[in-house]
Amino acid sequence: MSAQHKPGRKEFFGGCPHDCPDTCAMIFEVEDGKLVGVRGNKEHPMTRGGLCVKLKDYERRHYHPDRLLYPMRRTGPKGSKQFERFSWDEALDEITTRWKAIIKEYGPQAIIPYSYLGHQGLVHGLNGGDAFFNRLGATVCERTFCGEGSCTAWLLTVGPTAGVDPESYIHSKYIVIWACNSMSTNLHHWHIVQDAQKKGARVVVIDAYKSRTARQADWHICPKPGTDGALAMALINSIIDQALVDKDYVEKFTIGYKELAKRARTRTPEWAEKITGVSAEDIRTLARALATQQPVAIRMGVALERHYGGGQTIRAVTCIPALTGAWRHVGGGITQFPVWEHPYKFDVICRPDWIPEGTRVVSNLQIGRALTGETPLDPPIMSMMCWNSNPVTQAPEADKIVKGLMREDLFLVSAEHFISDTASYADIVLPASMGAEMEDIILSWGHLYLTYNTRCVESPGEAISNNEIFRRLAARMGFEDERLQWSDSECLENFIDWNAPACDGIDLDYLRKHGYARLNVGTKDDRCPHKEGKFPTPSGKCEFKIEGAKNFVAGPFRQMYEGFQPGEPLDSLPDYVPSRERPETNPELAKKYPLNIVSPKSHGFLNSCYANMEHKIRGQGEQFVLINAADAGPRSIKDGDKVRIYNDRGGFEGDARVTDDVNPGVVVATLGYWRQLTRGTVNIISSAEFADMGHAPSFSDNLVEVELAG
Ligand SMILES: Nc1nc2c(c(=O)[nH]1)N[C@H]1C(S)=C(S)[C@@H](COP(=O)(O)OP(=O)(O)OC[C@H]3O[C@@H](n4cnc5c(=O)[nH]c(N)nc54)[C@H](O)[C@@H]3O)O[C@H]1N2
Ligand SMILES: Nc1nc2c(c(=O)[nH]1)N[C@H]1C(S)=C(S)[C@@H](COP(=O)(O)OP(=O)(O)OC[C@H]3O[C@@H](n4cnc5c(=O)[nH]c(N)nc54)[C@H](O)[C@@H]3O)O[C@H]1N2
Ligand SMILES: [Mo]
Q: Are residue 28 and residue 78 in the same domain, yes or no?
């Protein structure tokens, strides 16, 4: 664009780079070479001109006084945050010299990269360093923070389809938002849901507590955490029992109905009531509505996977629209991640072909175990490079991670915007560029648009982009491959399959001129992808039953080989699989730790981003813990008291909020608060055990006790 809005002010197209399904199309306002404001692009059908509370003053994050401006090396003890400035030349020299020595002594697998979606661009994001580290022969870090269990379950059942277009919800008559707090985490879809609600659609929210979104629902259904699989199986039972199956759809476009019906026979609403706490009558009512109030759309949140039975739960839920024939209608069906239909070329982005045969895979969720040697590794991890992620606050068993990072012999390099909780343990910190300072296309896992981001201001100080960091490291390591020196624009030319049908009429020039483009996959008013089956599964049908499937790790923006070695055989049918840490399934543990904790996203933070900015903390409030009066009373806890939440893994503190928003037996503490600014973080208590599918995390599968702090 670069239109003149005010004299001296230029405007450019931007894309929100944060890890969020909305990927907002933004306008950057620039004056005298500085970002002076941002706003949502009014033209964009999902962004609609509005930005969330986190992003609306993005320029303040760019020029925050704590921002990292220069490379620095550690001068004090690990974790002391004592650093001194040195030059890029010295930094790159020291890093590559140390790495070469480690490679000589231990081999390249003693080095591990650690990244996630801190930046969601194709060039500077999650996969930005993969080609470099694969070329190096480093340990492959299996990154399963978010959605990988859900993806595995989804691919097995319906294949890589976008499912219901989030924009088609305007046509839905009945909307179920399942374990998703849209008002905080998917705000730009929530607008559409609200418009449908105004037109008469009923909005049901299934959430383990009364979230912001649940409060706005016509009906809040509140199962105990991690029991959704029982609810889903009972819905299947009840749809069949009430003779509400769309037999024609099932016969033509599904496989395994008979077996599914047999499996569901004993999963009655009465059975599920005992497990979930949702009444059998409510389950029957919901089952009836799911079948009869078409078009019915279900939006699953990532949170649905975060317990041991999460994968099986998502399989069960994903079967429902095929049973009822909801897919026949525009605005009917189910949504997981629309990203499946984005034509990204991960082979070119990640170069999995460069991974030496036999290279090991280490889980990002279990990095604490790997660093401390609890999981014996030969060679041990001697160096980690972290960018776009902050495992000390975000990954489970946080105390173990800190213990690992404190190792004197571990060489930690951290590319960051701030001295995050993880960067505070680094030996070398590298200043990274921020949103408006780099060209990219921001991927979206929540809609069907490509979103362009203009590089429109210079980075302050000596900050450089992630991709430039890897270009420089590659040159210093002596890697001569052309791919590792591609400019950001060259990357963009090569990272998307511009010839794919989805890109018909779209190229990089188009994006530069218009800021965003809807993929060429139909419009919100006619998109009915599975009206006639056509599921991208091996059978072409929705697979209630899967023959011979084994567990694997799937993800739309991973190197697709990660952990790809098929694992344990999976149940051929969906079912309820109990959580590991629930009073019913683990009564011994529940004697010590009787409360289930749920740790969802904070409204005012983006994972741990913004949780160091004073005005954002003011908006969000200090770390709090929601607790029911029935649990607070016997513990002498009053509203506002400082409490300690703990289990065998450790503990953290927060302010008690005594409220009916949570049921007895459940506590809620939102995520993102920085360890260096608080007394412990919620991930100190989280287990690093995997869920049943895709090595997904189990953040909603933890028992704790709460007591007065002090
Ligand atoms: N404001 C804000 N927005 C964000 C983020 C952020 O940090 N802050 N993070 C982004 C990222 S990375 C992601 S993955 C998405 C996640 O988006 P969501 O999936 O919406 O994430 P959460 O807020 O963690 O969880 C949603 C809801 O699920 C509920 N829940 C948790 N466990 C269970 C359960 O077992 N059963 C049921 N029925 N409900 C359960 C929680 O109470 C919560 O209200 O949000 C993105 N958007
Ligand atoms: N208890 C609990 N834990 C959870 C979850 C939960 O619901 N409950 N949710 C999980 C989920 S869904 C996710 S996705 C993960 C997210 O976990 P992370 O991806 O680790 O999340 P962030 O805290 O956003 O960390 C991103 C870091 O990257 C930095 N960064 C941002 N942009 C750039 C850049 O351009 N360059 C560089 N070098 N750095 C950059 C930011 O400053 C920030 O420190 O957390 C998981 N952890
Ligand atoms: Mo996430």
A: no
Residue 284 makes CB contacts below 8 A (sequence gap 6+) with: 238, 242, 269
Residue 523 lies in a domain: no
pLDDT tens for residues 512-566?
999 999 999 999 999 999 999 999 999 999 999 999 989 988 876 665 545 556 7
Question: Do both 140 and 157 map to the same domain?
Answer: no
Which ligand 2 atom is at minimum distance from the Cα of 422? 44
Same domain, 393 and 501: yes
pLDDT tens string 668-690: 999 999 999 999 999 999 999 99
For residue 467, give the ligand nearest its CA.
Answer: 2
* Candidate of 394, 428, 466, 681 to mutate for ligand 2, largest count of ligand atoms within 8 Å of Cβ: 394
Residues 356 and 465 in one domain: yes
Cβ within 8 Å of residue 473, ≥6 positions away? 92, 95, 96, 132
> Are 125 and 159 contained in the same domain?
no
pTM (two decimals)? 0.98
Q: Which amino acid is at 255?
A: I
What are 374's two structure tokens?
A: 């609890």
- The torsion defined by the Cα of 186, 189, 194 and 197, in degrees rounded to 10, comes to -120
* Cβ–ligand 1 contact at 225 (below 6 Å): yes
Q: Report pLDDT for 226.
A: 98
What is the 3-state secondary structure of 304-322? HHCCCCHHHHHHHHHHHHH
- Contact (Cβ atoms closer than 8 angstroms) between residue 28 and residue 436: yes
Read off the pLDDT band of 710 (50, 70, 90): confident
Number of domains in the chain: 4
Interval 119-164: pLDDT, tens: 999 999 999 999 999 999 999 999 999 999 999 999 999 999 999 9
Ligand 1 proximity of 183 Cβ (cutoff 6 Å) = no
Q: CA angle at residue 631 from 626 to 636, to 5 degrees?
A: 100
Q: What pLDDT is stored for residue 557 in this prediction?
A: 65
Residue 471 falls inside a structural domain: yes
Tokens of 29: 């306002």
121 Cα nearest atom in ligand 2: 35
Give yes or no: residues 331 and 356 share one domain.
no
Distance CA 323, CA 341 (A): 24
Domain assignment of residue 399, given as a range: 72-146+342-518
Torsion of CA 577, 579, 584, 587, to 10 degrees: 130
> Edge-to-edge strands of the sheet including 9-15?
9-15, 25-31, 34-40
Q: Is 459 in the pocket of ligand 2 (CB under 6 A)?
A: no
Q: Which two tokens stand for residue 541?
A: 């049908």
Q: Supply the pLDDT for residue 555.
A: 78
Asked if residue 314 is part of any domain, the answer here is yes
What is the Å distance from ligand 1's center to 351 Cα? 32
Nearest to 306 by CA among 396, 409, 416, 379: 396
